[in-house]
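User: Last request for today: this protein with magnesium ion, please.
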Amino acid sequence: MIQDPSSLTEPLAGPTTDHPEDLSLPHRFRPWGGEHFESDGDSRWQLALECSGSGAWDWNLLTGEQFHSRRWQEMLGYQAGEIADANHEFVNRVHPDDKALMSAAFNDYLQGRTDSYSADVRLRCKDGSWKWIHTRGTVVSHDAQGRALRMIGIHTDISDRKAAESALRDNEERWKLALESTGDGVWDWHIASGREFFSKRLVEMYGFTQEELAQNPEALDERTHPDDLGPMQNDRQAHFNGLTPTYSNEHRVQCKDGSWKWVHTRGMVISRDDAGKPTRMIGTHTDITDRKNAEALVRQHAYFDPLTNLPNRRMLRDRLEQEIKRSRRDALQLAILFIDLDHFKEVNDTLGHDSGDVLLVEAARRLRQCVRECDTVARMGGDEFTVLLTELTPDTNLESLLQKMLHTMAQVFVLGQEQVFVSASVGVTLYPMDGTELDALYKNADQALYAAKGAGRNRFSFFTPALQEATLARARLTTDLRQALVQQQFQLLYQPIVELATGEVRKSEALLRWHHPERGLISPAAFIPIAETSGLIVDIGEWVFEQALTQVQIWRESLHPAFQISINTSPVQFQHSHAANSNWVMRLLALGLPGNCLSVEITEGVLLDSDDIVTTKLLEWRDAGIQVALDDFGTGYSSLAYLQKFDIDFIKIDQSFVRDLQPQSTNFALCKAMVAMAHALGLQVVAEGVETAAQRDLLLETGCDFAQGYFYARPMAPEGLHVWVTDRNAGLQP
Ligand code: C2E
Ligand code: MG
Ligand code: MG
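Assistant: Here's the final one, the structure of the complex with magnesium ion:
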């Protein structure tokens, strides 16, 4: 129960005189008269007290009488003696808001709960303003029953200190507000008391109101993600120990609704006790959930293929590195499968990229289904996948798994209205038998895949040392090929193309030869693919073009003014249009040659990949008069659509149809059909690989326009062809 100090006089005692005064005092106590001190021995202390700037009071609890020193009165703005009746004066001056607190302090003291009485209260001054004073006192005499009779104390003016404190508080409030306004939540942890203040913004961040979240550090620690709690506490401790200038940590906190939020908390110890132990720390919480989500997305992008959600090349590399380490430790085996879809490009080109995407997603799903949970299926890009089979034992039946894989991939793919079939080629390499380093294993798998494709696709092929040998040979050839142009190791041979009806020769095909300094003559079939993969074909193609141009100029003068040379091109040359064949028309113009002195042989692959570059090029050539021949016709798609869509002048029936040409054979029927079809479309036909008179006769029968082959002549050096043509035209015989 809290009482007004003045009312305490009542319960304490009725006025009684039978108990001796000053029992507890070492010397006789004389109350102040309010105006002056008597200058006896006691007054020295009284004087000293006055000098300290504090006012003194003396209170008789029996009578309720109170005396206040002159200093006390001055403190409140009075002249000495101006307050005549000091009795009750004090309590009436206490600010109404501070009375309860003062009574409580007083009661606590009188009832022995505290050793002395003290309180901070505001007192009304003469001019009506308020002054903060610190009041302190002790009982100086008791009655026989131990009841307090008299108290003496002092009043100290603490207005300045209070003002400073309030300014500090305002200041703190201000920075807390400022921090809050950044959208961050603020925390203020009084470590000694275990209390922690959370700002409104902070608790709201997690969906709470301020009443709902306890004001102590555990309230948030308990909501911190178990995986993050340890590191968070470590960071905090590091700062406590003075190892870090500030405390900073990112962790997840569970919101009221159960969801998780990522926050960045930053803080700093702002006070420590004498032993250096932190006593107070303040800091903020910044919501970084969006940033974390974005980071996760980026990570997802960096490590996963967005189309199939399979791990990508980078992720696979990471996993493979780990698996190699693990397998090395546990003596396990691994298999790496490089998988390439056969004919995917055709699907993409004919049905569009959307259908291609659907196919890839489905292919990814099928591959995943073929393997175990612990295996990895990754997409390397395009239609290339890699499978990493882990924990293989000698009992693992790899072949049956590979068969299953091929079988699954060969099943029909339904793409909207369309049903398509693709198959897969697989190259396999084993750790540690074939290699122990990641890059070596990748190379092996690639070689094995190359072999599987070369062997006719829809099959798997294991890496072997022989494959390695072949690859090495290819690599050496590539190196040598780079020198070939500079060292002038190339040569063009010419094979005459005979007009069947007249036997006249006004065309020849330029066929490339490479005279390797050590290995002798290398056939184009062996080096063109290497030139293509290395990109060297572009420069080689330019060389062929220039050579042929020079040659045709000569022959137009010496053999026939309408002589034409046909040159072979690779699809790769069309992909590099900006670097190569783009200036062919200009070159012709520059030399004053008409376009029809050249015929460019392309393969269907070029048309299959047809994009704007190809279309534009073909139109450009047509406008310039350059003729176009479709080489090796009948072996690829042989699509009529191409022939109609593009400006083609000739088709060249592949030699495989001519080889077994018999009067009743299918090939004969096919040749007839091809010629009829071409003629219907306004195209002329060249038959390749004519080796016998019988073949020539049959071709004549089909209505075929031109023929070339060993029957007439093998490819020859320019001088040889010149002689051959001159001789032939001299004694013309069909
Ligand atoms: P291709 O364009 O179909 O050339 C015809 C091939 O058949 C030539 O082989 C030729 O020598 C050969 N041949 C000609 N008549 C007969 C015959 O009666 N019987 C047989 N069995 N073969 C005959 P070659 O010169 O080895 O060229 C092979 C392929 O290399 C060419 O096939 C062509 O695709 C490519 N090629 C040749 N020169 C070049 C070139 O300068 N650039 C490009 N990109 N490819 C070229
Ligand atoms: Mg050709
Ligand atoms: Mg051909």
